[in-house]
Structures are given as C-alpha cells and as structure tokens.
Amino acid sequence: MRLKDCHNFSDFRRLAKKRLPGPIFHYIDGAADDEVTYRRNTEAYESVDLVPSVLNDVSEVDLSVEVMGQKLDMPLYCAPTALQRLFHHEGERAVARAATKYGTMFGVSSLATVSAEEIADLAPGPKLFQFYFHKDRGLNDALLERARAAKFNVMALTVDTITGGNRERDLRTGFTSPPRLTPSSLFSFAAHPAWAWNFLTKDKFDMPHLSGHVSQGTNLAVSVGEYFTSLLDQTMNWKDAEKLCAQWGGQFALKGIMSVEDAKRAVDIGCTGIMVSNHGGRQLDGARAPFDQLVEICDAVGDQIDVICEGGVQRGTHVLKALSVGAKAVSGGRLYLYALGAAGQPGVEKALGNLRTEIERGMKLMGVTSIDQLTRDNLRWR
Fold first, then answer.
1. Is the pLDDT of residue 173 over 70?
2. 278 in Cβ contact with 312 (< 8 Å)
3. pTM check: above 0.70
4. Which of 43, 135, 212, 365 has minimal CB crowding within 10 Å?
5. What residues make up the domain containing 250?
6. d(CA 335, CA 343)
7. Among this protein's residues, is 279 annotated catalytic?
C-alpha cells in the first residue's frame, strides 16, 4: 500500500499500522478501558442524515470560517497532540507546514516535540497553544510566556486530564515516552527499520517546553497516563481557569467541555471558545460523544462563544453535520496523525486535501455555497 492509495481515514490508518512499530501505532490507535466512547465518537455522526437541496448554483463554494478571531480557509483544523516526533521524525514540523499550506490552524501541545518558537517560524498562519496545568507553577508561567512571545493566536486549556485514563493498549505494549526498550518492543522496532533508523539518527527526542522543568517524559520514560496523574495539578478549578484566561488576555478556550453547565461557566469566566471533546475517548470511557452533546451545548451558548466539535471526524460529511448543528468548526487528532505516521508531511497534506475535497463536494451536493447556509433544516435525526 502506498500514499497515493490512501483515499480516506481508514486507508491512512492501515498504512500507519504497516509503517509504525506496534507500541507507537497502538498509542495513536488506542483509547480508554473498552474503547466504547472512542467508537461512539464516530458512530454518533451516523445517527443523523443529511437532507440535500438541489437546483442551486454551486459553481463557487466558500469553505472559509472565522473561529476565535482566526480566519481559516476550511472549517477544520489540526487539534494539538503530544509526542509527534515518535510518529515521524519531522513531527510537528510536518503538520505545521501542511496546515499552513491549507490555510488552517495548527494546535501545538505542551507536550510537543518541537518548540513553540520553531513552530512560529515555520507556520505564519493561525496557531493554537494547548496548555496542561502542572503542579509546577513556574512551568505553567513559562508555558504561558513562551506561547505569548511566539505570538500564538489562541490559548486552549485542557480540562479533561485531571488524571490519566486507563489506556490498556499502552499497558500491554509497554508504551512510554521516550520509548523504553523491552524484548517485545525491541522486536517491533527492529521489524520497522525505516522508523528505527529515523528515530535513532535524526534529531534527538525531546519535549522542549518541559526541558529544565521536569525529567518525566523527556529523560525519564513514563506512560502518558503516569505523566497526567503524577505531574498535572488535580486541584485545578474554575478560579485557576479564570485566572489563566485573564493572564493570557486574548482568545482563550477550554478544551474538553462536555456539559451545558460547564459550557455556560466557560462563558462566565471570559472564554471565547470551547472544544466539545472527550479527549478522543482516551480518558473517561462510557462518556458521551461530542457530536451527541452538540445540540444542547450550541443551543445554550452558541450565540455567546465559539463552539468547536472535536473528535471522531473521519469524513467531510461528518464536518457538514457538526456545522449544521451549530459548531463553528471541527478539529481532530487521529485524522492527521495516521497520515503523519504513514508518510510525514506529504501524508498530512494528502489527509487534509482529501477532507477539504470531501467538504467542498458535500457542500455542492447539499446545495450550499457557504458555511453559514448549513443549518439544522439540512438534518434529520433517526
């Protein structure tokens, strides 16, 4: 299978599985407990049908949206994800360049493997910095100031990782950051010589936002669940979020909102956006899917704050359904991470290009020429 044969999400997943060592692939692919929520994130979109309109002039279609003050050329952006250097030796650099090419926003994680400063040089377009609230308040202050100095446009505080989810696939494969060599993982790495060669001979694995503050995850191998549980501040509360929002003083979002009451509180503390998200099903298994919660959240706060639907998106029609409900945009991680693992920057570009083509084609078949023409009149719930 080659990159040119990747026509959809599942194709990229198959190619990534072929090219990545088992522990690395299953870190991307896995979720919490029985992975019920992970599956539901995508299945939720199949609970709603599209009702197209015909005989409209759709020769010109505008896919652009404005989200948290940022003009995007398409209503989908790359959600922040950690550890991208493990999936491809170019890591965040590859995704930043691809997002720039498609005129969309790129989210950079606190646990990124390329610095905010380098990303700022690579990606002149809209950029979001994803903030993990650590016990080390000095580290928190450093993260905020680095993002500010690098002129990131949006700050997003992740609020659904107060402790690590039970990611059983990682427990079985022994996945850690940086990778720990065991007999089973060594065999898997050796069976993927191209990945192993690039990992060992290219830039040394690092998480530059954490270096000098913590050793876990950079020099000391730990699982992501261990990192969340041991280093993130479990006392984090609404006052902390409000203070961080004020400190940032610009476009600020909470990432991981799933209830109407929390969405309303996000408005109250001054947020300009929320990501309706369950962390890709990687935290609380049995939680609702973001798309299932979208109607009530948009009805409650959609006219006061930008609502982003994050998770489970695999097709352009999924994007159209979320926008029709009332989301300003959608975002996701796996939708580009499989492509990154499969083929680096060309893979991410092809994944974003495929989705853009699907969104544009879907809009024409729906009989709409701009995103604001998508409404619930276009939908029927089964």
1. yes
2. no
3. yes
4. 212
5. 3-381
6. 13
7. yes
